[in-house]
Write a structure and sequence with these properties.
The chain is of the alpha+beta class and about 140 residues long. The protein has a 4-stranded antiparallel β-sheet, with no helix packed on it. The chain has a two-stranded antiparallel ribbon with strand order 5-6.
């Protein structure tokens, strides 16, 4: 009679596994009970002869409200007074999407203003040249 391998599933740096199963298994990892941030899923398998294998899977949980920041980015070098805009919004749940606050307002990018100024400058040039030709 053939005996199956077993697996022990650990989360983060826990000493005790949160599950011990005979393979093959299917299970659901409920991330809603975990704090946002970096986590590690460690699976230790043991075959019937006692040999062990380890698989480590790092993952990031982002269940909390999303935070959007405009005005400063990671590792920016800054001086003086910097205006910063912060927006945070929840995603709702898997059954209901929250539209309220889910879009972060952003300032108009500099390239847009450059295009507008270029267009206005060209329009002034064009009308000036046409007015001179008409004289």
């Amino acid at each position: 009679m053939k005996k199956n391998s077993s697996v022990f599933i650990f989360l983060d740096e826990e000493i005790q596994p949160f599950g011990e199963f005979v393979v093959p298994i299917n299970f659901e990892l409920d991330t809603t009970k975990l704090v946002d941030g970096n986590h590690v899923l460690k699976i230790v398998s043991k075959d019937p002869n006692g040999k062990e294998g380890i698989r480590i899977i790092p993952f990031i949980v982002r269940n909390g409200p999303s935070i959007a920041i405009e005005g400063i980015a990671e590792n920016d070098i800054v001086d003086g007074i910097i205006p910063i805009m912060i927006n945070a919004y929840g995603k709702g749940d898997q059954k209901e999407f929250l539209i309220e606050g889910s879009e972060t307002p952003q300032s108009t990018p500099a390239w847009f203003w450059a295009i507008i100024i270029g267009f206005i400058g060209f329009a002034i040039y064009y009308f000036t040249v046409e007015m001179i030709k008409g004289i």
